[in-house]
């Protein structure tokens, strides 16, 4: 049975009527596949007889599973609010009692002299073992203690390990267990095992039907663990197989004119000339990643590389040098940025650094006028532009290149998969360099970006000092403002960042427009204040930022539009109001806007009183560390991989049971298995191969070309 067949509605199950179907739907369970993947959150081990003895050794509550003889009944409390109390003892004679709050009707069932099988939470209270939370079943009359375990095993809720499921209103554990048992009996027995048998045997994994049965209703703890490992491995393997196939396809492609030995990147004259004019030396980390990139560019296969480095580590300069390599061999480079503000800054920097070397540079954004755009596109298609820097406008249908050889995508996590593909589609054999100042946790590097080689700039240029980070509660801003005023008086500059552009009747949060007026007229009346946010037209934003860089504006009131790419070395203060409303990545990026010059810089995270647990965790992490890689790992724990990669909205990480925070070792094993499969049987990669088609039909719906063509 293939995955598609499991998309039948859950109402197809025996005993699932319209009312139950509606309740299941509210829990997100729509199909047979959904209910089979509604995995237990924990288990109750009712297979092991404990007796009452474990509860005697502690004052804490202990789960007890035991046969017990009912020795008596009594009621306590004043009528009519009396409560039934049932006395009993286990096989060794240890006494205990059941306090039946709201269940006096049990007096007719819990009759002295009968033996029951009992599961409940027992605790020492009032000099005896008591339980008010318990389940039981009457065993057949005349059953002895010796016969009780076997008799209990014939009951549906005893003598076994029982699953405990996440529930929603209207659902009970009994309902879920019954529905899932029907799904296993009616559908799971015929499910195809998705993992290749060689891999399953190598890693000691179960078949799919057995794994599903054992994850829901395990025979023992060992089988439960193996089932969990199998299902986690399967999810991770599917993801890694998709990445391995993409990587294989890209690496098996050949650049035009390349030979088995690759080809030269040029004589390096342009790079040497640029480095000679910089006035400083590249860091060892920059030199290392440059060698990795140059080796890729000179190879016969297209480069597919992620360049990650903390804010201010010098990634853009490395990218410009990579563009020089491409120009020297006659190719063109497209450099895509997520915002027009950042694209313009890159274009300005490229113009200063690269135009003197003879490079022909152009800026292409949505704000370029029609006539100017027409001339630019003609020059681009004629090969008269070496480096074009722009926004999403670069992947428009009417944008054509004569010889696009290198694609650079800055802040890649801000682009959707299809946007990256659209630009890669301009030339499927072009070298691809993705850049991010949001370090990628190693788990994401092996999943979302598993088909990419990763280069890391792990050191900052000499002279950079860590930004001091301080926390301040709203209401204590006066101290922050006084500090900022001293910095401004010393000739420095500052950013004030707010979560909203304008005031909202639905929120009490501070906004950039209102605070711009407050900063300008009250708090910092002796200084020049500018306002910048996403609703302003690009020319206005450019003019304000140019004046800020020039020092004509001392304070910028802004939203997170200044999160990436804004480089003003003289700015030493970053004040983020309602900091708890920003994600860790955004906070780290915003803090990275200062500390880019020779002066000590400061970040002030101003928080509200109504801090959530998540908000508190974020602020503590920001206070503790300026290490972007540590922050990224912590962000993964808080937000989850989908949110962190920017892929949650597209269902890109459809893990039902695997957890990237805890299953890293299994992820590495799945990666090895997928890579080995691709290497040992490259024929599986051909679409006409029925075995691969079948495996891909069963796999989650990942595109072959999600990243990088």
Characterise this structure:
The protein is of the alpha/beta class and 709 residues long. Among the domains are: 48-159, OB fold (Dihydrolipoamide Acetyltransferase, E2P) (Beta Barrel); 269-300 and 314-436, Rossmann fold; 468-625, P-loop containing nucleotide triphosphate hydrolases (Rossmann fold, 3-Layer(aba) Sandwich), CATH 3.40.50. 37% of the residues lie in helices and 18% in strands. The protein is built from 24 helices and 20 strands. It is an enzyme of class 5 (isomerase). Its EC number is 5.6.2.4. One of its GO terms (molecular function) is 3'-5' DNA helicase activity. Residues 296-457 form the Helicase ATP-binding domain.
Task: Pick out the low-confidence regions.
Answer: 642-652, 685-692, 696-709
- Beta-strand content estimate: 15-25%
CATH fourth-tier homologous superfamily of the domain at 468-625: P-loop containing nucleotide triphosphate hydrolases
Oligomer state equals single chain
How many angstroms separate the termini? 31 Å
Tally the beta strands: 20
């Amino acid at each position: 049975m293939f995955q598609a067949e499991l998309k039948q509605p859950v109402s197809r199950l025996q005993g699932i009527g319209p009312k139950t179907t509606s309740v299941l739907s509210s829990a997100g369970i729509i199909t047979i596949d959904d209910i089979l993947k509604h995995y237990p959150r924990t288990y109750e081990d009712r297979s092991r007889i404990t007796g009452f003895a474990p509860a005697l050794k502690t004052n804490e509550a202990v789960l007890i599973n035991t046969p017990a003889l009912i020795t008596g009944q009594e009621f306590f409390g004043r009528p009519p609010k009396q409560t039934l109390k049932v006395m009993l003892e286990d096989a060794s004679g240890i006494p205990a009692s059941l306090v039946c709050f709201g269940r006096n009707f049990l007096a007719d069932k819990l009759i002295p002299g009968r033996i029951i099988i009992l599961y409940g939470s027992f605790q020492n209270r009032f000099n005896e073992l008591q339980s008010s939370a318990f389940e039981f079943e009457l065993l057949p009359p005349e059953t002895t203690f010796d016969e009780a375990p076997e008799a209990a095993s014939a009951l549906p809720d005893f003598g076994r390990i029982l699953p405990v499921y996440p529930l929603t209103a209207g659902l009970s554990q009994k309902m879920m267990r019954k529905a899932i048992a029907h799904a296993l009996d009616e559908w799971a027995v015929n499910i195809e095992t998705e993992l290749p048998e060689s891999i399953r045997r190598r890693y000691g994994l179960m078949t799919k039907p057995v794994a599903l049965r054992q994850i829901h209703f395990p025979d023992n703890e060992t089988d439960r663990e193996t089932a969990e490992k199998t299902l986690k491995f399967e999810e991770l393997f599917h993801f890694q197989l998709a990445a391995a196939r993409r990587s294989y396809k890209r690496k098996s492609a050949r650049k035009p004119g390349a030979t088995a030995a690759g080809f030269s990147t040029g004589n390096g004259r342009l790079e040497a000339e640029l480095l000679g004019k910089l006035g400083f030396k590249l860091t060892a980390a920059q030199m290392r990643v440059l060698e990795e990139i140059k080796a890729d560019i000179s190879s016969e296969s297209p480069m597919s590389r992620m360049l990650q480095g903390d804010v201010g580590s010098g990634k853009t300069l490395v990218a410009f040098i990579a563009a020089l390599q491409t120009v020297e061999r006659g190719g063109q480079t497209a450099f895509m940025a997520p915002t027009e503000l950042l694209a313009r800054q890159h274009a300005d920097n490229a113009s200063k650094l690269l135009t003197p070397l003879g490079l022909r540079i152009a800026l292409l954004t949505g704000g370029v006028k029609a006539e100017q755009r027409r001339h630019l596109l003609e020059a681009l298609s004629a090969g008269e532009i070496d480096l074009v820097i722009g926004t999403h406008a670069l992947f428009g249908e009417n944008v054509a290149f004569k010889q696009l050889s290198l694609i650079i995508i800055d802040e890649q996590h801000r682009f959707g998969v299809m946007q990256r593909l659209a630009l890669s589609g301009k030339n499927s054999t072009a070298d691809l360099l993705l850049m991010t100042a949001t370090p990628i946790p190693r788990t994401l590097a092996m999943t979302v970006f598993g088909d990419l080689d990763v280069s890391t700039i792990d050191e900052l240029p000499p002279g950079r000092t860590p930004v001091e980070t301080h926390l301040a509660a709203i209401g204590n801003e006066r101290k922050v403002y006084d500090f900022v005023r001293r910095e401004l008086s010393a000739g420095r500059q500052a950013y004030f960042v707010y979560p909203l552009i304008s005031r909202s009747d639905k929120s009490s949060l501070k906004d950039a427009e209102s605070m711009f007026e407050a900063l300008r007229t009250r708090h910092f009346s002796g200084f020049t204040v500018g306002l910048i946010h996403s609703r302003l037209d690009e020319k206005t934003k450019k003019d304000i930022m140019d004046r800020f860089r020039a020092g004509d504006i001392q304070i910028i009131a802004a939203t997170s539009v200044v999160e990436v790419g804004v480089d003003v070395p003289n700015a030493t203060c970053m004040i983020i109001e309602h900091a708890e409303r920003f994600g860790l990545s955004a906070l780290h990026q915003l803090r990275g806007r200062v500390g880019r010059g020779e002066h000590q810089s400061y970040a002030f995270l101003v928080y509200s009183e109504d801090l959530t647990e998540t908000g508190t965790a974020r602020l503590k992490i920001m206070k503790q560390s300026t290490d972007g890689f540590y922050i990224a790992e912590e962000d993964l724990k808080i937000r989850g991989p989908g949110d962190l990669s920017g892929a949650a909205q597209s269902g890109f990480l459809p893990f039902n049971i695997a957890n990237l925070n805890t299953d890293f070792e299994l992820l590495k094993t799945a990666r090895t298995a997928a890579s080995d499969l691709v290497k040992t049987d490259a024929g599986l990669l051909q679409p006409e191969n029925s075995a691969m088609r079948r495996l891909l039909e069963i796999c989650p719906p990942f595109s072959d070309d999600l990243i990088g063509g």
